[in-house]
Design brief:
The protein is mainly beta. The strands form 14 sheets. A 5-stranded antiparallel β-sheet has the order 4-3-2-1-8, with no helix packed on it. Strands 9-56-31-30 form a 4-stranded antiparallel β-sheet, with no helix packed on it. A hairpin with a 4-residue loop joins strand 46 and strand 47. Helix 1 packs parallel to helix 3 and helix 2 crosses helix 4. The protein is globular.
Length: about 800
């Protein structure tokens, strides 16, 4: 997005010939409005009073008269600024669309949604407005008076989901300490004096670790298997999540707000302090900061040298120590423990670097439990570390060979270990702390990002992915009931062991579509169909004339289609809610494509004829569909299906018969691509890196490459000169490299086709025109949020 459309920047005058398309007609008053070049005002301060509300411009938050803050989108803020510049005057819909959504092709409802969001933030009534009035066939008028505030207003008191206001700091700490009779490290009620200078502004975290919701898409493709080698435990029926507090979003407070990324929060046992990893500017470096659960200055407890990152801190049960992973050059990884007051960190064990792994202290404080992806060979098992000896031993529990168990967390009473099994089609499980047979607690089959027990060990809070959004949910262990907490774009929850205190990451990542001209590397990449939403999974037809992709630009995740070179053809495809795990797969004729969509809680395969808008659900015989592809020149389809507990497999179907006939099957397959030119099927596995090939009838299976890594298959393309992979790295969004022989030296020498620090999640190649379409982060930032945890 150009800086000229961001708050705090001047709106540049448009040249006289830079006008709307001739097909758009306006009354003379509309043209007069469009020719005023101060529609997007330059804010005179960071806070704007609108009636009884105060708008925090940098945070995009509206504080109501009752101290309740509601966050609004960037586009809604820009609409408000336009209306504020013309307070008391009617601003036409055409003018608002022209200035706020300049150089895009918005649907008519995006403005309606922005105004609806503003009304909700102001608590306004459309039928009896006090803030924004709708003028029939005219536009909108801001009724409330506006005033720029040179000094920020007093911060509101954070409130819980319950109607009562949250206690102030000293009251909260007293409440938290009341839950424990054990001696713990004392935490000051007032902010501690920093032992180091205030932390500088952060840079965004590299794309390999976390970018919600983009990482939800990027991590959506790993670690599970198919055809169980033992009987699966019975899965609980999926439970519809209940809304929080009569549908009202839960209230929380951002306790960090610097640019960049703060990651992996962990709370002290009494819930009064939080430790997190913070990335410093101008370098690949991260340290641990500690602060009270309020927006105050943090203090550094580790100061790693350049090129070293301290990540995944976890507070000890007695509150005196913090365990964390230290990542160094050359993929070095060590597990360290540092006093919670700061000081020298001591090395306790080696580990295997990876952002999916995590670990947890046992309540006795003498050992840790960790997931295999974080600390061991890639066996996907849970292991224990004896802190006295530094020895790792596997947990004695039932686990299939191809199950991957992640994010283990001990319950505060020490009786259970919660974890999630597999990644993309994952669920919450628990197993006795001594080992044994695990039991499945949810039937959601989705990506999960972090688990945390409530202090009474009765429920588990977790972050789950659904329809391009990540939200906090809670499962009651006894009843298996799942309810949403009303917080979206939040992950990696942490709960204090002895207090109702909840911290989590609040993500503000946006993604966009780009097009790179591979034949002319000197040409900068171009945005494709710019929008204020999140655009994902581009898929270009074989002749390069059409594109299908997924976006929430209309306010919900949906499927969009257009003829390239014909901007007016862009439209939303009704009749399917796509699952943004893989992009659409075109037929060889380019007249149809396959896409996986959600039908309630079930995943189904749909065939779309975009020219007519026809959408048809295909009668796949069994299982939830994860991916589908055409076999050229036939009525055969390749379908990847979840066969239970997240295990995946590929089936070749003949759909000319009713019911469809299964012709061949392969175990442990995640994604397929048909390389018609070479008469082969390429596929990746969810349990190991590399690429395999098979004949079109699924015979002659063999591994042909050790790349790509697990989860990178959406960045792969088959070209006339071989296989290529899109690679992202520090300071470079896109490098386009041959798949064979990838190593760090070769990647470093390859030309960068898109400068920046974003990460590519998926690609689609128009080989005839040598145009590469890809989805990448457009903006990225994450903060730490905090709120009191409501009771059962």
């Amino acid at each position: 997005m150009s800086s000229q459309f961001l708050p705090g920047y001047t709106m540049l005058p448009r040249p006289a010939n830079d006008r709307a398309p001739p097909a758009m007609t306006r009354a003379p008053s509309d043209d007069a409005m469009l020719n005023q070049h101060r529609n997007l005002v330059v804010p005179e301060a960071d806070h704007l009073r609108v009636g009884d509300c105060v708008v925090d411009i940098p945070r995009r938050e509206v504080d109501g008269s009752g101290g309740e803050a509601r966050r609004i989108t960037l586009k809604a803020l820009q609409v408000l600024l336009v209306l504020a510049a013309h307070q008391g005057k009617v601003v036409s819909r055409e003018a608002l669309l022209e200035w706020v959504w300049a150089d895009t092709m918005p649907t008519d409802d995006v403005l309606t949604q922005a105004v609806t969001q503003l009304r909700k933030a102001f608590g306004d009534d459309r039928d009896a407005p006090q803030y924004i009035e709708t003028i029939a066939k005219g536009g909108y008028r801001l009724l409330a008076p506006v005033e720029w505030l040179q000094a920020p207003p007093s911060p509101p008191i954070p409130v819980a989901a319950a109607p009562a206001p949250a206690p102030r700091s000293a009251e909260v700490i007293a409440m938290r300490r009341h839950a424990s009779a054990e001696p713990v490290a004392e935490a000051a009620a007032e902010p501690a004096a920093p032992s180091a200078p205030p932390a500088p502004a952060r840079r965004r975290m590299p794309a390999f670790a976390w970018a919600l919701p983009l990482a939800a898409v990027a991590v959506a493709v790993a670690a599970f298997a198919w055809w169980p080698r033992r009987a699966d435990p019975p899965a609980p029926a999926p439970v519809a999540a209940a809304p929080a507090a009569a549908g009202a979003p839960a209230q929380f407070q951002r306790i960090t707000s610097l640019p960049g990324s703060e990651m992996w929060p962990s709370l002290s046992p009494d819930g009064s302090q939080v430790v997190y990893s913070a990335w410093v500017p101008e370098g690949d470096q991260a340290g641990l900061l500690v602060q009270t659960t309020a927006p105050v200055t943090a203090r550094a407890i580790t100061e790693p040298p350049k090129g070293v990152q301290d990540n995944m801190p976890v507070w000890s049960p007695n509150g005196r120590e913090i365990a964390f992973e230290r990542w160094g050059p050359g993929d070095r990884c060590g597990l360290y423990i540092v006093p919670s007051s700061g000081g020298e960190a001591r090395h306790v064990a080696d580990c295997r670097r990876g952002s999916e792994g995590s670990f947890s202290w046992h309540p006795d404080g003498r050992h840790l439990i960790a997931s295999g992806l974080g600390v061991f060979e890639d066996d996907g098992a849970l292991h224990l570390l004896d802190l006295a000896t530094g020895k790792w031993t596997p947990l004695a529990y039932d686990k299939g060979e191809n199950d991957y168990d992640l994010a283990p967390v001990y319950s505060p009473d020490g009786k259970w270990i919660a974890f999630h099994r597999n990644i993309s089609l994952s669920d919450v499980w628990r197993v006795p702390a001594a080992g044994g047979k695990p039991e499945r607690l949810t039937g959601l089959r989705t990506n999960i990002f972090g688990l945390a027990w409530t202090p009474d060990s009765s429920a588990i809070v977790f972050s789950r992915y659904q329809d391009a959004s990540v939200q906090l949910s809670q499962v009651d262990v006894a009843t298996r009931a799942v309810r949403d907490l009303g917080i979206e774009n939040a992950g990696w929850p942490a709960i204090a062991a002895r207090a109702p205190s909840l911290a989590f990451i609040v993500d503000q990542t946006e993604t966009a579509l780009f097009r790179a001209d591979l034949a002319h590397p000197e040409t900068p990449p171009q945005r494709v169909f710019p929008s204020s939403g999140m655009d994902l999974m581009p898929s270009v037809s074989p002749d390069g004339g059409q594109i299908a992709y997924m976006s929430d630009r209309s306010g919900r995740i949906a499927l969009w289609w257009a003829r390239l070179g014909q901007p007016d053809s862009l439209r939303l495809i009704e009749g399917v809610t796509p699952v943004p795990r893989f992009g659409a797969v075109w037929s060889d004729a380019g007249d149809r494509f396959l896409v996986v969509g959600r039908d309630g809680v079930q995943l189904a395969l749909y065939e779309v004829t975009p020219e007519s808008g026809r959408v048809r659900r295909l009668p796949v015989p069994a299982g939830d569909v994860v991916h589908g592809a055409y076999v050229p020149g036939s009525e055969r389809l390749l379908v990847v299906v979840d066969q239970g507990a997240g295990r995946l497999g590929l089936t070749l179907y003949d759909r000319a018969r009713t019911p469809w006939k299964a012709l061949a099957q392969l175990d442990d397959v995640l994604m397929t691509r048909v390389d018609a030119a070479r008469g082969r099927i390429l596929f990746t596995r969810p349990t190991s890196s590399g690429l395999w090939q098979a004949s079109l009838d699924l015979r002659d299976v063999r591994k042909i490459s050790e790349s790509p890594a697990v989860g990178a298959s959406r960045r792969l393309a088959a070209t006339a000169d071989g296989l290529r992979l899109a690679v992202s790295g520090r300071d470079c969004v896109l490098r386009w490299l041959p798949l064979d022989g990838l190593d760090k030296a070769k990647v470093a020498r390859a030309p960068c086709r898109h400068q920046g620090e974003m990460g590519v999640s998926s690609v689609s190649l128009d080989e005839g025109r040598q145009l590469l379409y890809y989805a990448a982060e457009h903006t990225s930032n994450s903060d730490i949020g905090w709120m009191p945890l409501a009771g059962r």
